[in-house]
Amino acid sequence: MRLGLVATCVLGLEEILEQELRGLGLRELRRQRGAVSFSGDWRDCWRANWRLRTANRVLVELASWEAPDGPALAAGARSLAAGRFGRQKSLDAASLLHPDRSFAIQATAAASGVRDTRWAALSLKDGLVDGQRDRWGRRSDVDREDPDLRLRLRLHRDVATLLLDTSGEPLDRRGYRAASIAAPVREQLAAACVLASGWDGRGPVVDPMCGSATLLIEAAWIALGWPPGRLRRHWAFERLPGYDPQAFTEILQEPLPVPDPDVRLFGNDSSGEALAAARANLERANLLDRTTLVRGDAAAFEPPAVPGLVVVNPPHGERLGTAVERWRALGDLLKQRYKGWKAAVLAGGEDRGKHLGLRPRRRIPVMNGPLEARILVLDLY
C-alpha cells in the first residue's frame, strides 16, 4: 500500500531532512514549511522513524477537505469516519477509525477562518464520533494520555488535512538524555549541525564548549553507524493495524555505513555541572569509553593533532558587548587551533555569529526552540 507520508522538522532543517529521505531511497519528496512530504509503504514509514536524525515525527496523511468554518470541518470528519468520504489520501480511514480504538487530537491553524485550535480539535472530534455512530452505532473514547490513534489536524488556507502520527514520542527524544543543563541543544538540531558540516565521519570530534554532550553524541552515532532510534522501546505505529513485528525486526537489522568504528570524542567545558551531565549522557549513549572530558576554558583546550570535526553551540544571552568579544575569541580559536578541520557552529543570540571573523561556507537559518539561530558551516584552512 502506498502511503502519503510527512516527516516534520524544526524550521530551517527542511533541506537537510530532504537529503536524509533521499538517502533512504524515498520518492516524491516535496519540501513544506517545517516538513518534507514523501510517498512510501509501511516499511518506509517504519524505517523513517528508525533512521531519520533531523525529523520530529513521521505522519501518514489520511484525508483533506475544504473547511472554511467549524460546521464544514465537522461535516468532513463525519463523512470520513462514516465511510462516505471520496478523497482519502491513502489508508482506509473509516476502518482505521474503529470505535474500539481510542484517539487524541492535536490541531494547528494558519491563514484559515478557523483560528482557535482547541475549537478546531473539538469540531473534528465531534464530527468523527458522529460518523462512528453513523457506521458502527457507537463511538471511540478520547484518551489524551495513551491513545491508540494520535491524530493531527492541520488547517491551512481553509483546507483541513487529517494526519496520523506514527511516531508517538517525538523522534528527538533519543533516550540518552539522562541529565540536562539549562537550554540544551535539541538532538535533531545537533544532528543537523553534523550533517550540514560535510564531515565524512572520520577523525576525532571536538566540542570545546560541550555542555551536556549532545553534539558529541550525535556526531559519534553517525560515525559509528548507529541509528537514532537505537535506544527507543516504543513507537506509535506498533499499535496500528497492519503492523508486522517480523518486518520491523528486519529493518532494525539493516546495516548502516560505519565511517569510523574507532571514533574518539573530546569534550571541554568550564562548568562542572555541565560535565557531570555530559558524563551521564555519554554513558547512557554507550560512548563514555571513547570520550575524553576536560574542565577548563575553551581557549586552553588542546585538540588532537589529527583533523576531524569541531562542533560548538556557544552560550549566549550575555549583554551584546560581551557577546561580541566572545564571538571574536571563538573565531580566533578556530583559526589558530583547528586548521584543516570541518566545523559547524550553532550561532544564537542577537549576534548569530556575525562577529565570528570567519566566512562560513553555508549559513542555515533555524529555530532553536523559540529563538532564531544559524548553523554556520566552516572549512578551516
How is this structure best described in words?
The chain has 381 residues and is α/β, with parallel strands linked by helices. The chain has two domains: 3-165, VC0802-like (2-Layer Sandwich), CATH 3.30.2130.30; 187-227 and 263-379, Rossmann fold. It has ten helices and 14 strands. Helix 2 (42-51) packs across helix 8 (245-252), helix 3 (70-82) runs parallel beside helix 5 and helix 6 packs across helix 7. The termini are far apart. The model has no long low-confidence stretch (mean pLDDT 94).
| Strand percent estimate | 15-25%
Question: Given the structure, what is the number of helices?
Answer: 10
Class by alpha and beta content: alpha/beta
The whole-number mean of residue pLDDT values reads 94
Task: Give the helix/strand layout.
Layout: E1 3-8, H1 14-23, E2 27-32, E3 35-40, H2 42-51, E4 57-66, H3 70-82, H4 93-96, E5 103-110, H5 117-136, E6 149-156, E7 159-165, H6 187-196, E8 205-207, H7 214-224, H8 245-252, E9 265-269, H9 272-284, E10 291-295, E11 309-312, H10 320-337, E12 342-347, E13 362-368, E14 371-379
Parallel strand pairs: 5-6, 8-9, 8-11, 9-10, 11-12
Antiparallel strand pairs: 1-3, 1-4, 2-3, 4-7, 6-7, 12-14, 13-14
Helix pairs in contact: 2-8, 3-5, 6-7
